[in-house]
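## tool: complex_structure
## caller: assistant
## args:
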Amino acid sequence: MAQAAAIGGAFEERGASRGGGLARRRARIAFLLCLPLILLVLALVIYPAFYSLHLATLNKSMTRFVGLANFAFLFKRETFWMVVEQSVIFAVGAVVFKALIGFVLAHLVHRLPQRGQRAWRGMLLVPWVIPPAMSTLVWWWMYEPSYSALNWLLAGMGFAPVPWLGDPYWARFAVILVNVWYGAPFFMIMYLAALKSVPAELYESAEIDGANAWQKLIYVTLPMLRNIIAITVLFSLIVTFANFDIVRILTAGGPRDMTHVFATWAFKLGIESNDIPLGACVSLFMFPILGIAAVFILRDVHRRSRELAGVAA
Amino acid sequence: MTKWHLSRRRLLAGASSAALAGSVYGRARGAYGAGKLSVGFWDHWVPGANDTLTKLARQWAEKEKVDLTIDYIPSQGNKLLLTIAAEAQARSGHDILAMNTWLPGSHAERLEPVDDVMREVLAKNGPTNPVVEYLGKPDGHWRAVPATPGSQMKGPASRIDLLKEHAGIDILAMYPPDGPATPAAEQWTWDALLAAAEKCHKAGFPFGIGLGTTSDSVDTWGSLFHAFGARLVDEKGDIVVNSDATRAALEFAKKLAAFLPGDAIAWDDGSNNRWLISGKGALIFNPPSAWAVAKRDAPHVAEKVWHHPAPKGPKGRFGPYLPYYWAIWSFSPNKSAAKSLLAHLSTREAAEQLVAASQGYDIPGYLSFNDFKTWNEEGPPRGTLRHYPPTEDQILSIAAAPAPHKIAEQIYNQATITKMIARIVQGGDSIDKAIAWAESELEGFMRG
Amino acid sequence: MLRPEVAAPGAVKVASGDLRRQRRWALWSAYACLGLFCVFFLAPPIYAFVTSLKTSQEIAALDGNPWLVRDPTLANYAALLGSSTFLRFFWNSVKVAVIVVAVTMVIATLAAFSLARMRFFGSTVLATGVFLTYLIPETLLFIPLFQIFTWLRDLTGIEFINRWWILCIVYPTLTVPFCTWILIGYFSSIPKELDEAAIVDGASTLQLLLKVFLPVALPGLIAATIFAFTVSWAQFLYPLAFTTSIDQLVLPAGIVTNLIKGDVFNWGQIMAGALLTAAPPVLIYAFLMDYYIAGLTAGATKG
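## result:
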């Protein structure tokens, strides 16, 4: 029962067959049921977003309308392009690793005897359940230049201490590492359930056809999981791109602004340097980038769902 | 018709009884006739320091019959900044908020001028130090009253033993526990610091001077720039960073950075504290918070820490000072009460109590207040804070001065100075390239 | 997926010892790999726990193994649990989380029911795009939101600024989209025959929802509830921006702002506070894990 098919809905068909009046009444009820959601989003997300758009067109002291001057100004700053690049590296890098690790873990757990799975699953999901602001504090303490417990381990193994947050490239790695640590369990849990829902017959018939493990993966597992992979990747891209807490607590964007992502740089410009219009500008840049990604991925998901629905109907 | 008459009578009756009740209420309770006041003070890290301030404020509130609400807002995590930004936008919130450094200047238009309060206060206390005036009077009017809690000097805190053993510097001879600075203190120059840094680095106890973007780092290198006469933007708003003085300062910074910890560029305000407390470092630039925590956690380190003025450069001895203020929003409904409270908190007695409660951390902005007993008596080692308050031979500095306030604020908050140094030290930029980058940044700050 | 113990015993016996050894080796290497990841995932909370048992003197000392405690003490926990400030934060967090969960579940359930079963102009867009609201970040929204609350305050006379229940209005923007999305997935997997049977029996829409959907979709509801709770509990920026007074703060904003003052960090207490803050979601998750995972994933895999 694909989601898209459900959205079509038995109701609508029957409503239509009984005459337009019933369908319209059903539609009105449907709308009313959705109204709280719509109001919530309109009032507390859409309206403030448009207000921010308005803010982004003001000058620094918010007394004059300057149109797109702030955007033009940003385009000319070297730091802005660094932030774009860094945000993309952070989001894409983190999501790729999260998805990969989640996928691998899901397979590993799936292979375990049924009894043991529950315990392993439980332990592996812990990072995602701890409030991220708190776990970032712990990571920060583990990275701290003078007291790093990680460096202590490295020293014990004979390595030199790593400037986790002091060297720009290590800092980027450190930030991505924390995000991957936090997010991979989510992917694992999603893929694990998806794996369980793949019918065994498909694998059996593949084996009969002489497929080895790798081929089973590519020709059975991946196509079956394509939708869930697309959805989780999109959701994670969006959330990771907009991430604030991890970078803010660990590096505050440094060193030399080389770990700044949109949210943290917007905060620095908008709140710390008291230039709210410019901060709003920076934040707003995330929207088109993600919007495009979202449109592509969702179109793909929708098409697949419609295909499945078409097959089912 | 009848109904209308009745209701009007009832209305009048109601109104008069309310008025009666109001005055009876006021007289009988004897409380809050002068209205309500809500204050957001800076949350002091010294345990118990907030209580003294609360006591002083409540004393005043009792006397003046004001319904006082006090919040303590920490500056960590930018809580204070967020609060100020949100209240400024929404034009509502507390009546009085603590603000530091550039905040009175950046919100000047939304703050109630307090020239009247300051006239009184200055008449009684004498003048403030120049940094306090520069930051508190951004547009010719006092926009905030200098606050004692939180105001601090960011001079060096050194390990007496390590400096003596590895760098051959006897800091106690220069800044003795029982008297003013001796002529030997003239030897305490930036060049001497550089030599000492090299020796201590070789000995395994590097100086812990951060090159990050938080205020500890910015203040320190800002005072270095001033010591060399290097400015980024002058009073008129012209970009003057491309000068020989800047070059000299950057050359010096490059040499010094070679002897600092490798990840100093990522240090925040707490990193240098931890550096000192762990025993790893021979010197940091910090107010007494590091020493105070060491007293509790690493007493063997704390008893060897000495606070003293910053080194002298070609253009003088510049000491980094960071002032806090109390500012009244222009939308406050009870400005007269607010001003009265702030005047009450600016007396010498109040300042003395606050300094004592802060264990000598706070340094009030009035020059005549720099002789309180607390600093001479705090220890161990006794006298460690004797040379902490500003002395006459020091020029107090705030990084990015003398630029116009709105520009200086951005230089400060975006740490242009330390970022320039970081670009040279870590990014491999040449000095000219770094200066060129700074120029483009500064142009960006000129936005209206 | 054929697993060794699921295969018929006869099949295993027929297979060569090689295959069996191969399977066992595969299993053990799976365990080893999982073990490594477990170490990676659990190291930070364990380190936090170890640190929380140390005195600040021990934390400040550089010698010795930081992963072990030499003189364990419960002083950090005692300080927090005995502090009325911390307990206030905890209590505020509980109040906010409970209210937000209730509000979220009502809004999300109604919307998901509608979007999973019915159609109106724009419903498709709403269903698939509902979580695009996450594209608009908190750092962008909190200033305009502050304006809205001021305006509401002027309109109604109720003080919105700096009150913990302002969070109850704002958090649902973060929880409702994803919960709706989970529930849509779950509701649409409920067979239509159930609906039709109920309607034939004369059920109204409301009865259909309450008597047919909710009971069948219970795991999904529980999953959404746990998600909403976890997200509300973990919020950081909004409380930091909207609540100022100590008696209005929630965890974790309270932990960061109260245990880190100026440049003085109380690491032992911070770690203890972090663990205490993490405790409720972890405990709930531990007890309701199966529902949580089942609901979360079943709803998703149907998509």
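## assistant note: The two ends of chain A are 10 Å apart (CA to CA). Residues 2-55 of chain A form one domain. Handing back to user.
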